[in-house]
Amino acid sequence: MSESADIHAPGVEVKKSCCYFCHQNCGVLAYVKDGEVLKIEGDPTHPTNQGGLCCRGNIALLHLDHPARINHPIKRVGEKGEGTWEKIPWDTAIAEVAERLNQIKAESGAEAVATAGGTLRTDDWSRRRFMNLFGSPNGFHNALLCWIPTFNVETIVSGWSPFETDLGTSRCVILWGFNPGASAMPGMRGYNDLQKQGLKLIVVDPRYSETAAHANLWLPLRPGSDTALALAMLWVIIYEGLTNNEFVDNWCLGFEELQDHIIDYTPEWASELTWLDPELIREAARMYAQNTPSNIQWGCTADQLGKTSGAGMHARAIMRAITGNLDCPGGDLMPGPSSYYVTDEELEANDWLPEEQKAKQIGSNKFKLTSWPGYQKIADTARATWGKAPTSEWFCEAHGPSVFKAILTGDPYPVRALIISATNPVNSYGDAKMTLEALKQVEFLVTCEYWMTSAALYSDYVFPIAGALERPIIHNNYGVTDSLIASQRAIQPLYERKTDYEFWRLLGLATGQDPEQWPWETLEEAFYYVTWSFNEQGYQFGSYDEFVEKYRFFYPPMHYYKYGANGFCTPSRRVELKSSILEELGYPALPTWIGPAENEEDDPEVAKEYPLVLTTGGGFMPYHHSEEFNIESVRFLSSDPFFTINPEKAKELRIKDGDWCWIETRRGRIRQRANVEPSVDPRVIYAQRGWWFPERQEDTGEEPFGCLESNVNVLTSVDDEHCDPIGGSWANRGLLCKVYKVGYWDETDTSFSIPGSSPEPGVTVPPSEQKLAYEFIPYEPKPTFEVPEGLTWDPESKFAWDLELGLYYDPDSGWLIHPETQVYYDLYSKYAYDATTETLVDEATGQHYHMETREPIIATPTDMVGGEEL
Amino acid sequence: MTRYAMVMDQRRCIGCQSCTVACRTWNELPMDIIYNPVVTEGVLGEWPNVHRTFTPLICMHCDNPPCTICCPCKASQQDEDGIVWVESEKCMGCKVCVNSCPYGARDVNGHEGFVRKCTFCMDRVREGDQPYCVATCHQKARIFGDLDDPASDVSKLVNSLKTNRIFEELGTDPQVYYIPDLGGVH
Q: Domain coordinates of chain B in residue numbers?
């Protein structure tokens, strides 16, 4: 018999909570009695999971009261990294942190305070709100590796990221670098069900993944070469005439230029780069373009290719458009921001951040589309279309690795304080050695955490944060979709834990922010504010909890072809295959091939030393990012880190299954155990991400918790030249490496360098002197009208000017206009227009002239108007 | 009559081991007891023509269970609906049944001194719910129900598809049926 607690006993309440261990936020029913959660199970009525829960979801109760959880605010009393702490009350801790932040702000400006966020373990609109009110533009996430660059590129091409696949009536979907079999379990079930009904599944993955195993067509490409594949598929679609001509003719701009631009990107050209048979590329392109409506499902790979990322996103955005799949039944839907509820952006108080502070955002001079310069253009166009803008948290941030470099080098300016919430940057960001060093060296470090991690260990203060079951959660795709799924907390936070919202609110108030800016004391109050307008949609509820209990979901009526009324949300109201925003920001306006971060063609010398191609960053069960490594019931499923190597290559390198091996790139080396199986190409190494060893509590030396030992981010590069200039993402896929067995005498090398690939430790090239993968293309807007003789075209203001008189030319009316007085002047005679007499007047002499003939008008008594002589 | 049985759809199982963890947390099992491991031989074949199958294991709730006959304490028993279970109060942990089970589906752990095994979550099933491993499976790779009810999903699947049973030749008449993954799209 089971000894489980009785969930049917009297007094047991069922709370509609949700899982908080990945982005799916599967519905969870929590059985609660007297403030204690007895059991949880998957909610069978939840549309996402329909009762299912994976191993991560099922351990929520073990996570809730795990002995290693941090339950009280703690303050460092020993040396940094020593691990000696004392418990202090929340209000004292908050007051001390606030005082220090204000001091740094007074001395070095608000921008010297940066914050790092995690991946949807938080309500980060509140962090943004704090930062905006505080005056710092330097908040960031690992967003650049996860959808955000894709969203922004697709938005500038087609007006919103077409990320919601309407699979019910779709006939073909490409799962591109996306393995729902390990990272979106409910999705995997959906694909399987639909496949039975005829949906064709094209899977692009260098591994025989759980998803590739179910593909109708599997493209096992060279890791990192996705952009070449996308360009070649585009070539097939265009040159085999598989486009939707009606849509292209009516709605797309720049098709002919695109056609000429990609003429050399043939499947044969891509074959060498992708290792795929040209016929396979053709087959995939035909399957996708001929089985419309069809979809491309975004996968993280798109954002983890480093410098080649932007062009790939652009190419895929074009594929969706020219096949006529945008916003149509069965196609890729573009919901736009919600007009029904308060969006995240509206909670962020972005208006409070002064323009001069926006300009100081670190990395915004290099990676422009995902920071203020590009986001501002997106937001302006979106407001003109929808009245609302995309979220700025995630979508408009400082470049995380550049902030870490600024901490270490003071370039472009010193960053003195860092607040980390729900992330361990050592595991999550590229170049872990450099990141760890930045955490050790930053003057003031505060962490909001569940556990003691290598980042928390170097902190001055650590705050205990409420997790799954202890907080209400709204799921709305980072605030850029129009639907909403709401969940409630099962219980109040245990011990002294608080939600991160409360942390930012308390810190905001303590730093002197206006209490009126923080009107909601709890998340429930804030969420009631977000959802209350549903009451106008026929819903009836008086609190957020009541909304969850009675309705829980909000799905607005489905509208297809929304562009039909006002066009697309782009500057030209059309799908800009040739993107005007990319052009204005100085990037190639059409997708242009550039090799991945490291490759055999561009770096033959590196390839000689490091002959294998490394791919990493992909999710694998049972972990999510660097989480759950400390939960025994999960860890036993996968207790050591493993990399996968093909048996043929393993034999050549004399590596046996289970052997501990070094994986080495130019940045350093890590060790993992060999999983010898033919699930990758003999030229490819797949290494697991996220590894650290929380069980090594005593190990608080140079590398606490073995945080560099098997951490794949020791191998990745965040050098500017390896990042995508458009979106700033760095490469997890397609790096060059070598693999060899671990020997007894081996020791790890822990010194860092900037750039990471430098043979010398320390800072050898300051960040501001580092080059990008390619240079900006100076943008000079050309006049869209004929500039009259004598006038000068100014690309900055986009007007033609009479420089002598300071007048600009209005091409619609044909007049010159004074920018301040708005007085009209005749283009030829330069006389001002006098509206009262409908004549021209020479302002210097007061002489009037005839409008048509420009002959002087001699004053006569009949020309007297109102007794005033002309 | 009711005869509970389970179908494992190997075409859908992706080896995520959620059932393994879910069973343990729902039934609050000690760390050294697993009722339902998922096993695989790994990826077989030669790149890129490869294949992999996952096999979720569980107590087979046999119609002819060797583990009940051999129990000296009558602790290991079978109910009329086919569920095989161990009455912990009667069990003295002699492990005779552990050795008799060809499926390795039961064990005694060091601290408790009695045998534990999968009960098809009889507490849930008798309340009208599904066993927890079935409810928690995202892929719906586990199907549970009454084999004697012609309208049940298990009965329809077992009677319409070619299914396999493990060690059928031993005469245990196991009541867990496997729909094999024969490759291709289904």
A: 4-179
